[in-house]
Amino acid sequence: MILFKQNMFGLEKEIRERILGEQAQKFKLQKDALDTQIEKLADYKKHVEQIVSEKFSADYDLILQSLKKHVEKVWNIDPESNNYVPPTLYPATGDHRFRNPVQ
Questions:
Q1: CA separation for the pair 84, 73 (Å, rounded)
Q2: Residue 103 DSSP label
């Protein structure tokens, strides 16, 4: 009887260790898969950020060039012509005195 109890206890311990080992292995595999997905997500974020940054930079340059052209065009308008409309500049802009001296 004692031998039976010892065998049962040993068998229970072996089964428990085997099950815990299998579960630990499954958790390790799942953690590895999760880590891989996290790395892929980080790479994807960097890729998207690079695309958006390049697009924004290109658009920003185009907008800046367009604004510079419009400013040059406005500065070159002759005040004596019929097409001249004085710019509306507000005192908070700081350079209204230099661009539009007649108030």
A1: 11
A2: -
Q: Quick check: helix, strand or coil at residue 91?
A: helix
- Rounded CA separation 61/39 (Å): 33
What length is written for the chain?
Answer: 103
Handedness of CA 23, 26, 32, 34 (dihedral sign): negative
Question: What does each C-alpha distance from 100 to 44, 60, 71, 80 come to in angstroms?
Answer: 51, 28, 14, 15
Taking only the tens place, the pLDDT of each residue in 16-65 is: 999 999 999 999 999 999 999 999 999 999 999 999 888 888 888 888 88
Give the Cα-Cα-Cα angle 80, 83, 89 (nearest 5 degrees): 85
The Cα 2–Cα 49 span in angstroms is 69
Q: Do residues 58 and 65 make contact, with C-beta atoms less than 8 angstroms apart?
A: no
Q: Tokens 């500049």 label which residue?
A: 89
